[in-house]
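Below sits the subject:
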Amino acid sequence: MKRIMVVILTVVLLASVFAGCASKTSEEARGYDSSADYQGETSQTDNYLKEGAPVPAPEAAGAYYEDGGGVYEEGRKAIKTAEAQVEVLDFETAFETIKSMLGDNGYIEESNVWKTPAYYNGEKIMLTNGTIRLRIKEENFMGFTEGLSSIGTVLSSRSYEDDISDIYYDTEARLGLLKDEKARLEDYAKKVDDPEIFFQTQSRITQVIYEMENLQGTLKKWDSKVAYSTVSITITEKHPGEESALEKPKGFFERIWDNMKDSVGFMGDVVVFLFGILPVILMLGAFALIVIVIARKASGKRKKDIENK
């Protein structure tokens, strides 16, 4: 019985040894794809890229910004935008003033100017209108928008900002993972002897480089929009014969004078109305008089007839 047990244990041990050798041989044959350390990081990177899951920003020394969703090294990233509609006396003067206010702190990205025909004192004039989209340094954004009232009457204005801190630092972290993957792939490609695995590795390196360039382009675009805010201005040239779309508040005596003019105007309208209907009143009066005379004559005749009876 003991001999049988010894034989069984020996067979089990030999089977375990052969299984271990076979597993090792299989892993070596698979090469790059079965590398435990690198395979884990590659899988993690692919998950981030495919699912778009947020990843923590890499830690580094420096100033940090925290908003409850993560800790960021550089600080808050926000894209500021403003829109305004301004009425001016002269378009060209307003345009030059805007360029002067802009100075070296920004640039005009796009402008669109058109002319509209109008009439003043019987003569045809051309009113100039236009839209301007400009980019200005973020630190000068507030002062510039507040200074628009110096070029004319601000009819409407709106400013807002888009906080992109989360998506910015997620994208930056994904770029870091891809850079790390590229370095590991390049090191691995130098050690590969199998041509098929080598070409697979090179194909993945090309794909990683493409993804890195896309992310780098996105980050550069965001950096530009964060550093230079966007301001869109619609400029309307005022008609010389019209009052401003936004009138200034009138004083006490001005309001009294306006009320007196309104009262005189109302009385004048009443007089004009009365004179206008005077012929109708005279005709109605004459008709009523005739009816009264006829009625009286008829009544007197009836009385005489009664008396004669």
